[in-house]
Write a structure and sequence with these properties.
By secondary structure, the protein is an alpha/beta fold. Among the domains are: about 100 residues, Beta Barrel (OB fold (Dihydrolipoamide Acetyltransferase, E2P)), CATH 2.40.50.140; about 160 residues, P-loop containing nucleotide triphosphate hydrolases (Rossmann fold, 3-Layer(aba) Sandwich), CATH 3.40.50. Helix content is about 40%, strand content about 20%. It starts with 16 loop residues before the first helix and ends in an 8-residue tail after the last helix. The site of magnesium ion has 4 residues, from helix 12.
């Protein structure tokens, strides 16, 4: 009989009610199971010792052999601290205690060799180690089981309450004693054989008490694989459930609208990627399941026409379709573009935004409800309760990262039965991350730009080179091109940023005076109608320079614009820089992106700028972004399991993630109900996991 691991940690010897409470609150450790799964963040080589004269100001944990030569008490604001002078053959430092001073004085021996372990600070011209772990050298050598001592996650409260790393290690040791280290296997024999994985019990032992570096690596590999495997398994099963449970409207027909458009009105030849994605969408729409698909495609890859053709499929089957975009500008642009492309098809298309007039609204509401209106484009305004469709068959969401999950599901519920949903994004989420975040969505990728596009040339220039940059702008304008100059606008410092923008606008106006030059300006404090007017002037080529904030970031399309100047580029995130750059390079001309910065740059800023200069590949950029910021900041990852990984790392272990997904898929394909004898263990583990963790709250 294996030990029951669901029992509360209070029952473990050495864990009283106090410690149990702390472990629960600070580390989320409730049960034996949780404690075993409290994996070390890293390991320290306890056979390595530091000399005091070799200490550096930013040492992490170090251990130092030395002797305490004296104690003294130092008064401070509240109470006093105990300071010991600690000495080795190279120098002296201080050990410091703010609490538990009586015990320390009574129990620590002067002039005996100790091993002090902890973080060092540089304070008052000396190194000091607050609340070190101290062990007599003799004892330390006796206890040295392995060179790799685990370092567990901790919090200030834990350390302050005397639960040190050593304590946690001891508690876990006790758990292994009580359970005899014998744990249920959680992966099938086949998987273990195929991937050369060590057993669960062996892995758990070695991750907490590594016998060797080799066994530690094997233990980590096995546990990481397992973690990723079960996340993927759950996502895939969820996706399958979704498909079998939620019926979609089958669009059986490819009818007149689609065919006429395809045969006679396509403005250009579709790229192979566009064709492939359309086939994927077509297959979804033709099936009886509800489509729930994410379309990823870099800026300028041509997602809009794919959206249109998907909408035509809905119309051919007698359904309505809608397209929601995050900004007014973008909605208007979609609307104009679609109206133009459909003008020979006799389709009724309308646009609804925050600035639609009451009379227009009324008309739209009515024609939506009686089914006359076939396609509705718009902003968040589409989500208002008053907006009711007669039969919405397909909802498309552009630049979906701008919308919250709740907003999307609102659209979803606009029908008695959910419409097919296509979300489009130009924020290239690395494939690996997409797999774990959106593992329950189907993913289509347009990974090819329309033919004839020249890669944008990107350079980084310092503010002092501004005159050269202006000269370059002048040359480009003389060639008939247009130029964007973009300023950051970050909410907290809006006033200051606004001033930067206006100063910039004035300086550009001076260097590019009328009537030779016409300049547009667009920012968030303008009325939508004024913004629209200026955008249109620029789009029509009436102005040559567009000075703007990031309101133009998303989706705006002016193919004749060939230069993008980004001011204070160091203040933008990578994905934003990439989005902005995507505003140029849309026509046949060579395009340029100039990143302007001040002289002082942080390391992260430098990496961002270098990345932009080096590559135009959105996926590569997203990978770097992920490394710089971690998955926490990436869109939509907040609710997903990726943040709660216990041992695997979504960035470092992306290859393993792919393996895990591959095997999860393969097993489900061969044995969809996990009913084979060999897969019993997987089924049981899966059931247990779904019971204890609600990992179903993914995107719907
Ligand atoms: P995004 O994916 O960023 O939304 P768009 O759909 O706005 O890209 O397309 C960008 C530009 O490329 C538009 O001007 C569009 O007309 C054009 N375009 C799209 N597909 C093709 C194609 N296959 N061949 C040529 N031009 C295309
Ligand atoms: Mg777009």
């Amino acid at each position: 009989m294996k030990h029951n691991l669901q029992i509360p940690i209070d029952y473990l010897k050495g864990v009283g009610p106090n410690r149990a409470n702390l472990l629960r609150k600070e580390l989320g450790v409730h049960s034996y199971q949780d404690l075993i799964n409290l994996f070390p963040n890293r390991y320290i080589d306890r056979t390595q010792y530091y000399k005091i004269n070799k200490l550096q100001q930013n040492n992490a944990d170090v251990q130092i052999i030395g002797k305490i030569t004296s104690f003294k008490e130092v008064a401070q604001k509240r109470g006093k601290r105990l300071v010991a002078t600690y000495q080795d053959d190279t120098g002296t430092m201080e050990l410091v205690w703010f609490r538990g001073q009586k015990w320390i004085r009574e129990n620590l021996k002067l002039n005996k060799p100790y091993v002090a372990f902890g973080k060092t600070n540089w304070f008052n011209g000396k190194f000091s180690m607050p609340h070190p772990e101290l062990e007599l050298l003799e004892e330390h050598e006796k206890n040295l089981r392995s060179a790799m001592q685990p370092v567990y996650p901790s919090t200030e409260k834990l350390t302050n309450s005397g639960i040190s790393n050593k304590t946690i290690s001891k508690i876990i040791q006790q758990l292994f004693i009580e359970t005899k280290g014998d744990f249920n296997e959680t992966l099938s024999e086949n998987l273990k054989k195929e991937l050369h994985l060590i057993s669960k019990s062996e892995a758990l032992f070695n991750v907490h008490f590594p016998k060797s570096q080799e066994l530690l690596s094997k233990a980590q590999f096995r546990l990481k694989f397992e973690e990723l495997f079960y996340i993927q398994l759950q996502l895939i099963i969820k996706n399958q459930l979704h498909k079998s449970k939620i019926k979609g409207f089958p669009f059986t027909e490819i009818g007149n609208y689609f065919n006429t458009f395809y045969k006679s009105h396509l403005p250009f030849e579709l790229t192979n990627a566009q064709k492939r994605v359309l086939k994927e969408i077509r297959a979804d729409l033709g099936s009886h399941a509800q489509m729930n698909r994410l379309l990823q495609g870099d800026v300028g890859s041509g997602k809009t026409i794919v959206a249109l053709m998907a909408m035509l499929m809905a119309l051919d089957n007698g359904f309505q379709a809608c397209l929601m975009a995050p900004t007014e500008i973008l909605s208007v642009q979609h609307y104009n573009g679609l109206v133009e492309m459909c003008n020979k098809l006799n389709i009724s298309i309308k646009i609804l935004t925050g600035s639609s007039k009451t009379s227009e609204r009324k008309e739209i509401h009515e024609s939506l409800e009686n089914g006359e209106l076939q396609i509705l484009i718009g902003t968040h305004a589409l989500l208002e309760d008053k907006v009711k469709f007669k039969n919405l068959g397909l909802a498309i969401i552009d630049e979906q990262h701008r919308f919250g999950v709740a907003q999307r599901s609102k659209l979803w519920h606009k029908n008695t039965s959910p419409p097919h949903v296509l979300v489009m994004t130009a924020t290239p989420i690395p494939r690996t991350l997409a797999m774990s975040v959106y593992g329950d969505l189907d993913i289509s990728i347009i990974d090819e730009l329309p033919a004839g596009r020249k890669p944008i040339k990107t350079v980084h220039r310092y503010d002092k080179n501004r005159l050269n940059v202006f000269r370059f702008i002048r040359e480009e304008i003389a060639l008939g091109r247009q130029v964007y100059v973009v300023y950051p606008l970050i909410q907290e410092s809006e006033k200051m940023d606004y001033k930067d923008l206006m100063d910039g606008y004035e300086s550009i106006s001076r260097d590019f005076p009328m009537p030779d030059y016409q300049i547009s300006i667009v920012h968030g404090q303008m009325k939508p109608a004024d913004k629209e007017y200026e955008m249109q002037r620029f789009a029509k080529g009436e102005t040559q320079i567009m000075v703007a904030t990031t309101v133009i970031e998303v989706g705006v399309n002016v193919p004749n614009a060939s230069v993008m100047i980004i001011e204070s580029a160091e203040r933008f995130g990578l994905s934003q820089l990439h989005q902005l750059r995507g505003r140029v390079g849309r026509g046949a001309e060579q395009s340029y992106c100039i990143l302007m910065t001040g002289h002082k740059l942080s390391n992260d800023s430098k990496t961002r700028l270098e990345t932009m200069v080096k590559t135009t590949d959105g996926f590569e950029i997203a990978e770097v972004d992920l490394k710089l910021r971690g998955p926490g900041d990436l869109m939509g990852t907040q609710q997903s399991g990726v943040l709660n990984l216990k041992i695997a790392d979504i960035v470092k272990d992306k290859d393993l993630l792919q393996h895990a997904r591959y095997h999860a898929k393969k097993i489900l394909k061969e044995d969809p109900k996990l009913s084979n004898l060999d897969n019993q263990v997987i089924l049981n583990t899966y059931k247990a996991l779904s019971k204890f963790k609600n990992i179903w709250n993914y995107i719907s």
